[in-house]
Prior knowledge:
By secondary structure, the chain is an alpha+beta fold. Helix content is about 30%, strand content about 30%.
Amino acid sequence: MTESGHQPTETVLLLAVPAAEPIVGHHRRELDRSAADGIPAHLTVIYPFKPLEEISEVDHERLARIGREHGPLHVEGIRTAWFGDQVMFVEVKAPEEVHALTLDVASAFPEHPPYSGGIPLAQIVPHLTVGAGAPAAALRTAARAVGEALPFSQEVRAMELWAGPPIKGRARPAPWSRVRSYALRA
Length: 186
C-alpha cells in the first residue's frame, strides 16, 4: 500500500488471442487465476509493468511508438508444453516476433523488466498459459484436451494494457480490465 493507504493497481502488457479461447478458455477458467480475473487468453509482453497510477501520457506515447514498429503479429499455437510441472502452456510457432516486442518494451522501460527480472531477457519464452499452480492431474488432463484441439491461428493487431488489483497475496478473483490498446502496424 502507498502512504495514502491506496493499494497500487498492477498492470500487464499483453497480446490478446481470442482465437485460442474455444480451445483453452474452459481450462484457463479452472486452472489460471488470471482468467478468473477476466484477463483473456494472451501472450504476455511484460508483467508486471508500471503501476497504473505511475503511467504517464509520455509512457503511452512510447508504447504507441513501439507498437507502430512491430506487427501485426501472426500467432499460431502449435502444442502444449511445460515450465517444470507447475505451469502448462501452449507453445507458439515462430515466437521471435513476440520476443522482439518484449525486448523493445523492456529496453524502453528498463526499471520494469519482465517477471520483475526473475528470468533473463534472453530466456523468456513467449507462450499462452493454460494453467499454473493447479493440481498436476488437472494440468495433465487439460494438456491432453488442449493438445488434441490445437492448432489455433490469429493475426494480432494490438498490444493491450490491462490493469487490476495486485495478484500476490489474493485468494479470490478480482476484476481486471483493458485500459488501452497500442496498434501493431510496422
